Amino acid sequence: MKQKRALTIALATAAAGLTVFAVAQGLPKLAQKATYKVGFAQTESNNPWRLAQTKSMQDEAKRLGYQLVYTDAAGSAAKQVSDVDSMIAQKVDMIFLAPREEKPLAAAVKKARAAGIPVILLDRNVDQKLAKAGTDYVTFIGSDFVKEGQRVGQWLVKATKGKANIIQLEGTTGSSPANDRRTGFESAIKGQPGMKIIASQTGDFARDKGRQVMETLLQAHPEVNVVYAHNDEMAIGAIAALEAAGRKPGKDVMVLSIDGGREAVQLVIDGKINYVVECNPKFGPKAFETLKNYAAGKAVPVKIINPDREYTAQNAKALLATAY
């Protein structure tokens, strides 16, 4: 009876457009203990953002005295599914998962739930049609990717007075940040007839691939005057391609990015990147605080959104020391 009443309250709250809290009765329990064996299934380790996220998780686990079972999927959704299977076999207490792709990892989340292991998603989400927060996993901790894209688009509209020929370098196909950062950006520039996305192609969130894609698109679209990259790594790759072609990034071609790593913030100071929205990778403290709250039976929001800054020519120098 109590479980049914809690579910009814949750559904009514959702219908009213309010924050919905995880219904603990529908999720695996987590006992309160002095120490935990926790899995962290990382998607890849080929860029500074991922390295900073991993270090934050490892540092916080060490500080708390928890055992961290760490895996690196090396950019493979199939391997990450296998990594989650391995954690289930090792009977970890909880799994922190940064999903490589939305659909394959939704099934992995449900498998962990069936095995009695609660899952918290970090920085990327899974397909909401296949797995739901508060039912199949506890919560998503991360940035509002749609809002990130919107902020970039809104800044660009003002900076260009609604006139731009844009190349969009998209993140990993099928990943929630790529999907949402595209959606947010495109919604922000919608209704601006002078702003055109002349090409969109994935650079897989990687620097060298971003450079290669930008080289090809630049040849096909020399009229480009704005590059919007879904992350710093692709933006830095695009800068290399622009400079090799004799173009001036930040001047005759504006460069916009999301993440806010120290190298990108320095490029804002140098005038080669015009605008960056931060996506903070330091998840450790919030992730493990959420674990402890869940074990204590406290209400956990189905989404926990990290606050993110922005970097511009006006503030980048002052904020450089605090960038990751």
What order do the helices and strands come in, and which of them pair?
Elements: H1 2-15, E1 37-42, H2 48-64, E2 67-72, H3 77-89, E3 94-97, H4 102-114, E4 119-122, E5 139-142, H5 145-160, E6 164-170, H6 176-189, E7 195-202, H7 207-220, E8 226-229, H8 232-244, E9 254-259, H9 262-269, E10 275-278, H10 284-295, E11 303-305, E12 310-311, H11 316-319
Parallel strand pairs: 1-2, 1-3, 3-4, 4-5, 5-11, 6-7, 6-8, 8-9, 9-10
Antiparallel strand pairs: 10-12
The CATH homologous superfamily of the largest domain is named: Response regulator
The CATH topology assignment of the largest domain is: Rossmann fold
- CATH architecture grouping of the largest domain: 3-Layer(aba) Sandwich
Structural class call reads: alpha/beta
Query: What is the number of domains?
Result: 2
Task: Summarize the structure in words.
The structure is a single chain. With 324 residues, the chain is α/β, with parallel strands linked by helices. It has two domains: 2-142 and 281-307, Rossmann fold; 145-279, Response regulator (Rossmann fold, 3-Layer(aba) Sandwich). The chain is built from eleven helices and twelve strands. It has helices at 2-15, 48-64, 77-89, 102-114, 145-160, 176-189, 207-220, 232-244, 262-269, 284-295, 316-319, and strands spanning 37-42, 67-72, 94-97, 119-122, 139-142, 164-170, 195-202, 226-229, 254-259, 275-278, 303-305, 310-311. The strands form two sheets. Strands 2-1-3-4-5-11 form a six-stranded parallel sheet, with helices on both faces. A six-stranded mixed sheet has the order 7-6-8-9-10-12, sandwiched between helices. Helix 6 (176-189) links the parallel strand 6 (164-170) and strand 7. Helix 2 crosses helix 10 (284-295) and helix 7 packs across helix 8. The chain starts with a helix and ends in a 5-residue tail after the last helix.
